[in-house]
Amino acid sequence: MGTDVVRQRDEWIFDNCKLLDFDKQALIKYYIRKMLVKTQQMFEYDNLPDTIPKKDYLLIKQTQGHVTIAKAPDGKLYAFRGGLGGSPNPYYLPTISIVANPALKFNKTFTIDEDCVVILNDGLYQGLLPAIEHVAYLLAECDISFKFACINIRIPALVDAPNDTAKREAEEFFKQIEEGKKIGVIGDETFFDKLSVYNYANSDTSITHLIELKQYILGTFYQELGIKSTFNMKREAINEAEAGMSDSILFPSIDEMLEQEQIGWDKVNKMFGTNVKVRLKSVWYDAKEKKDLSTELMESEIEKNEGTSQDEEANAEVKEEDQKNE
Asked: Could you tell me if residue 97 is inside a domain?
């Protein structure tokens, strides 16, 4: 039945906002979605078929570890979430991809590298989801711990009142301080004798440790994806050399993913006559370009130094020969 009631803007914007109670599963799903949104920007494509939206293609590949590119009955190329199987090849790898797509109303068993191409996220078919789930779980635990640390910091001490009278006097004393209307005043010094004060947990240190832990978890994850993220556990300034120590471990994962993309789309281009090109995008491209430029400058400097050394050696030999002739 229809309704004339129009939902308010806040209702449809925040309808899925269910993190206020810090439910662990909701937090984990939140971080998984948040990181998958970021990894959608890893690659950029030229001449991608209209029937293969970039975001859907990458989501299948990154969550499943592989994606099947094949033609549907309408003759157009699609990216399918195919199930791999069949008799293994000599390297015990799958040879068929089973596709069932209700929207296109067809199902078919494709033979890999004959009438379909399976593009891998990485050589082990695992995708990004295992790493993202691992990090999302740890971040959710950090957030929940951080929540309770923030709450506990409100309780610097516990007060023990032996009877109702002392309890009422203590409550009135703290109420005056909280309201700020006047300074709490104790009229009877025996009030102090009635109360016992116990130091509660010191959450200042816990909060600092949790902030550092979250930075470390995010930093190691971003490095695995090829994004430089310096997390400083020394609690002091770091120099340029220390900041660049992790550069050498930034690129293996992203290089592997880019290589699998290039291998896969080269096969697609040959099999189906397309001309799809893939390259790194956003911060991944910038980081790779800087790394390659740094490597080229270093090699150029080494060659220059080697050439200078050879010239100096040659000049020394000539000078020595002239001295002998004299």
From this structure: yes
What does pTM read for this prediction?
0.72
Residue 293 confidence (pLDDT): 47
Which among 210, 198, 204 is positioned nearest to 154, based on CA atoms?
204
Cα 188 from Cα 254, distance rounded (Å): 71
77 and 25 inside one domain = yes
Dist. CA 76–CA 274, nearest whole Å = 11
Whether residues 84 and 182 fall in one domain: no
Taking the C-alpha atoms of residue 127 and residue 61, their distance in angstroms, rounded to an integer, is 7
Range of the domain at 171: 158-199
pLDDT bracket for residue 224 (50, 70, 90)? confident
For the stretch 110-146, pLDDT in tens is 999 999 999 999 999 999 999 999 999 999 999 999 9
**Count of domains forming the chain:** 2
AA identity, residue 92: Y
- Tokens describing residue 252: 């293996």
